[in-house]
Structure formats: C-alpha cells, structure tokens
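Intended use. Records like the one below are meant for learning the mapping from a protein sequence to its folded structure. Do not use them to infer anything beyond what is encoded.
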Amino acid sequence: MSKIILTHEGAVIKEFDLDKERTTVGRKPSNDIQLDDPTVSGRHAVFLNLQNIYIEDLKSTNGTLLNGKKVNKRQLEHGDVVRIGHHEMKFINENVQNFEQTVIIQAEPIKDNAQASAAKPALKVINGPKSGATIELNKPYTTLGQPGGQVAVIARRGSNYFLMQMGGTGQTIHPKLNGVEMRVESIQLNGGDVIEVAGTRVEFTAA
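Structure written out for the chain above:
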C-alpha cells in the first residue's frame, strides 16, 4: 500500500491511500484531494497508480514541484515530497518502509564527533539498542517510529524544526515531547527537547 501525507505549514492535515488508478488533486471539490488554495488550479495534478506511483501535472498554472523541482510527470520514490501551492505531500511506500529496521527512517547517521560538532541540527538516540547514535536532520522530513505503529514526523521549515504526530486511525498512544503527550498537530522544537516515539527516546540538538 502506498499513501501520501498532506501537510500545510508544518501541520499534518490528512493521510490519503493511493489505492485507485487515479487520485486527483486540485481546488475544485470534485477532486479526490481538494486544496483550498487560490494558487492551486481547479484540476492541478494527479497521482497515477500504474504498478508504480507517478505524479503528473495537469497543465496547471503554477506547476507541480517534486523535491523542489518542477515536473510534468515523474515516478515517485519512498520519501519524495510533492509541493502543490502551499501544501506538501510526502509519498510513503509502505512496502519499502516495512523493510526499514531502524527506528529513524530517511535519516543518515553522523559518522564521527568532528562532524557532529559542525553544529547541524540532529537527533541523538538516548535509549534502546541504538543508544548513542546521532542522526543528522538533513531532509525536509524525518520519520520516527515503527511501520504500522506509532509514528511521528520532524518537518524542517526554514531554520526551524517541528514535531508532528501522524498516527492515522485508531491511535490512542501519542508521541511525547519532554514527557508530555502531544495534543496538538505540531510543535516547534528547541535544543534539548526529548522526543519519545514507540518507546524510543531521542534528543533534539539545535544548530
């Protein structure tokens, strides 16, 4: 199963399964994904499920961005970010995600202390089998958690980072920030904040 996570200004709006051959995006209510945004065309773009998942721009006025670049039609890879107007959609291929055994997905470890001291925002794992590992936040989104379980996302907005919970349906246990369960869509992170997701705790280190 593949899906997209729709976000606006750092807040998760909704998740959509890409289980149909065509999932349309646009400003008109007739679209599968309606975006209330004057910069979005009435019929702006479509996700195509043709063995692989593709994003296709429908000759929109302002274009469709894939990982920051305008595209007409392109196959999507796990973790790609599609931007339409002021909204972003992160593509999740759960078949790929289920093979990810690390707690932190879409992140690259910092290899040594010299690199870690370069004052780049990062996460430090502070419990469990990966305790001591440091992961640089060098992507627009970093997913925390376990496939099919409790999940949260750290989203980069300019020089700031926001923690967003994305539980999907039926989630009763929320991610914790500094020991307190999240009850809002997103929270801006500060240096030293401790995040707990699916039993694993990580500390956010600011630049």
